[in-house]
Sequence to fold (230 residues):
Amino acid sequence: GEWLVIRHFLTSASALYFAAVGLAWLTLKLSHGKKAGWRRFQHARGEKATQIVILIVQLLYPKLCTRTFQMFRCVDLGPRIGMLLEADLSKRCFQDVHAQYLPFAFVSVFSYLIGVPVATFAIIWRNRHRLHAPQVASRYGDLYRQYEDAWAFWEVFLQLQKCMLTGAMVAIAPGSPVQLLIAVVVCLAYLLGVTHAAPFRGHHEDRLAFVVSLCLTLSLVMGLAIIMDD
Fold:
């Protein structure tokens, strides 16, 4: 029951939000659309809105990955009980309410988990020859400004690493050596990539990225050793 209430609330809230945004835009368009400088003002607001959206997506992306993959994380409690959703043990996996929400989880996978890196790559690829143009840098600069021109797409690799570590690891054999082994492989691949590419514009940023990746990899290796020892 509470799942249906939450779904209806989110649907209604989303519809109201988009309706409010559309109504506000239409009101400004009707009241100021014919005034001098309106297009310049609209363009500036569009750039600022794009910057805010990029920031919000970058902050929410790891959490979206985790929440999405939690829909696929089930625990087997034996033949008498069966598979239950770990996030809510009152729900049976692939039945009833969980079966109703699985399509939304797949939509989230394609819309957010895959869609965000693809959209990032498409934006940078489309503007690859004018990344330093003022109108492009002001709108999309947060996606590539901190990287060397040769590695302007590095944000895509970073997003994929976040997706694997914060999302996919939730659903892959929870608490098992396999889970940590895959995480170690992902971190080691990113560590080697940072070491080889040195994608950041500053040497200090490259060294910091290397140290952070090394610490994360060593932490996972130690966790894997503890689990294997037990």
Notes: Strands lie at 74-76, 83-85, 88-92. Confidence is low (pLDDT under 50) at residues 1-6. Residues 38-70 form the longest helix (33 residues). Helices lie at 2-32, 38-70, 96-113, 115-126, 134-140, 154-171, 177-197, 203-229.
